[in-house]
Amino acid sequence: MNTTPVRLAVDHEAQTLTVEWGDGHASSFSYEGLRQACPCVECRGGHGKMAESVDPVVFRLPALMMYEIKTVEPSGNYAAQITWGDGHRSGFYRWTDLRAWCPCERCREA
Length: 110
Ligand SMILES: [Zn+2]
Ligand SMILES: [Zn+2]
Known about the structure:
It contains four helices and six strands. By secondary structure, it is α+β, with helices and mostly antiparallel strands. The protein starts with a strand and ends with a helix. The structure holds zinc ion (2 copies).
């Protein structure tokens, strides 16, 4: 599984962050799903729950509210740091996790 991002695109209208991978596959994540999946300690409810896995279904649920992503910055070569409209920026999304969460039909059936 290729987990090297080659292109990132944020679409505020569609509320999606799309990651294009080195193998040509593209994954579109809903803002709301990303926010729910925020891997930071605060959002995960403490260190004890850090290992709890995220159910990729969060990226397929209809969005209940609008979010804003200010910036998506690479952190080293292992993760993306998302800065949200409300200033929250402690979540580091590992590329390997994002690839594993890909909500597309093909990946979910695999
Ligand atoms: Zn968080
Ligand atoms: Zn996919």
